[in-house]
Structure of Cadherin domain-containing protein:
Amino acid sequence: MTKKVFTGGFTTDVDFGTVIMEVKAVDKDVGVNSVVNYFIISEVRQTLTEGLDTLSSESFVINRISGEISLNFDPQKDMKGYFEFDVLANDTDGLADSATVFIYLLRDDQRVRFILRLTPQELREKLDKFRDVLANITGATVNIDSYKIHENRDGSVDQKNRSSLRGRVGNYTLSVKAEDGGRPQLSSTANIHICVTDVNDHNPMFVKPPSNITIRIPENATIGSTVVEVMATDEDWGVNAVVRYKLRQLPNNHWRSFAINEVTGVITVAKQLDREAQRVHELRVQAYDLGEPTSLSTDLDLTILVANVDDFEPEFTQDVFQVVFTENTLPEIEKYKLLPTIDKDDYDLIDPAVGFKSIPCYHIVGGDGGHLFRLNTFTHELTTTQSLDREFKDNYTLIVQATNDCFKIPPNITHFDNKDNSLLQVLIGVRDVNDNSPKMTKKVFTGGFTTDVDFGTVIMEVKAVDKDVGVNSVVNYFIISEVRQTLTEGLDTLSSESFVINRISGEISLNFDPQKDMKGYFEFDVLANDTDGLADSATVFIYLLRDDQRVRFILRLTPQELREKLDKFRDVLANITGATVNIDSYKIHENRDGSVDQKKTDLYLHFVNRDDNSILEVNDVLSLIDKNLEYLDELYKEFNVLVTEPTQSLEYFLEWEDQLKACLLGTTAFLALLLILVICLCLNQKSRYERQLKAATVPVFGSESQLTRCNVPNTNQHASEGSNPMWMTGYDNRWYDKDEEQISNRSSGDNSLDENAIASHSPDDSLDGSAGRESGGSASTTTNDKQALCRGLAVGRVTPQNITLPNSNVNSITISHNNKNNNNHINIVKKLAPKPPQKPMNTTAVGTKQLMSASS
């Protein structure tokens, strides 16, 4: 409350319903939070009263919005006393304050009248100050009963102007109404005609040129040639605004060479100019009005430069100049001064010491915005003639030409020539202001989802467009209403925030986990606003779908091609079918065998009945499409629609337990195969090593008692492979290879080399060895003693390099060993069995094999 105690009063001659006073409370909040309502919260208490016994308890009523307190009864002449009650002021959230009100019943002789030389409007603005100061000085509570226009003793009233009449010259009509206080109230109206005359209080002001300038004219200018035209305006009215011109007669007498038209302001050459005698002329032009009783005037100084005939034109130092104006700005508020020029005639060529800077004139000679911009010829300031709208056009181009002839407008040109240095291309940009609110692309957005989607899945997107640019075009999205559920089942446990919206992108996401038994659709409102609070809203419908409620369209388009014109396909389909069409998803087409076709796209849609907002069944949708097929023919051809069919579940998704079982079965099968492979490898290796071990442990020369492996050199069981002669594979026994097949045929069935060697040994075998002696001596010895053979072998190791193979008709094998000191020769003679007459080839083969056994 502005005060804790409010006081007022009224006399008995006022009527029922008269406003007695006003209480006031101030809330520092803004918007809806600052709205204050007023209430009388106590009974009306009467004090020192007379004649008020018949009044009801509601003697006064208060306006809930304005706080004005009005009379709720008809006052009588015999009533006296005052009233007291309490008033409450609260806002929309219940925050409140209270005050006490005193209202007094007055007699006319209890009031004081102040006559002030102020209009009622002027008094209203500072009435509180007058009352408060008066109360502080007198120490009493001052109540304002009323104020009105002063009435003279003769019944006339003084009416004064409320504000200054400066600049308001003209005729006015004032309507005055006079009314009395009787019952019924009578009144009369009269029109008063007022004429406001002008006072000469404005000096003429030069507008062309607006300030002192320098003008160049050629020295061969003829008498009567125009030098410059000056113009001045006067803001007065009538004769006070009439302007005349004259040249001031300065002591330099330069004014004698020129003349001026006192009405038009055109200055001309009055006599022939002589550049050698006078190069610079200084003039002063006076503009004066015809006002009474005193004429007002203004002076303008001009400098006239007499130039050579072959004068150079001014040149710009660059081709392009850029400026930026703000849209929606009033004309001539923003001004930009264009680039200055350079002129080769700025300095006198005859006398370089005499320098003189001239100011050229600028003219707009081309471009696309000449009617929107104004260029001051002399000051070179560019401004607008009307407000610009960036949304209509955000840039303009002007072509400006600089010239020394300020009174001859150059012809317009269509193209800028960068070779002409007197031309300047002005690029004008329009700065954006936030004067456009975001606009939703649609007033109703629809979407849908099935119960197999996850928490947080993006369902749909709302979109608003702001024609502004930059930060002014940034749009934020909000859900501004509760989510309303319709025709729903299984949604009782959902919170009020079933959906959330991305503040930046406008994407609406799921904020709960859908269940299989859920049905229905949702409705809520979305707001889009920009940085300055300009906003627009739309309604969103989101439907809970079953898989069999969607229609699949197979199109011969890639997803990228479909994305560019998806809205058109949906809108045309909706217009023809008369249903709301929502896009669920689209993806690359998948064939029945699981392969994908990159050139086809599967588009999934569902259709909504616009009358009751229910989902249309697939069969109804297909019937609707069939009925309108002739209208959809062009659309189907444009989008290459191949198939329109109900959506079928093409994929079988395993549950988590099934996936685990499948994984375990696969792992078990893999381990079983691996085990079988390892067993096979082990058996193969075992067979291989058993054969090698058997060959290594069989005695070569008969029984173990006669000759052990330890008695034969290089046959130790720990020797490396190749040390035992039976492992020797370094030589190629060609003569044995020829009869290998025959030997195999004669074998008893055992293919072991060692067993064949043992089986072929007989008592008839004999050995014949010989050893060479040193220095040419030689001896040969034939023996069948195995110990002698061992001694012979001890001399040196038998290798493939020192074995001499005999011919087929030779019955002995010579094994020789050479070293540095001696030569040893061992002759082994093998008696071969007699050749059977019927099979000579086999006998030879057997003998050969026996020789191999002996050599071993």
About this structure: The first strand starts at residue 5 and ends at 11. The chain has six domains: 5-111, 205-307, 315-431, 436-539, 546-653, 733-855.
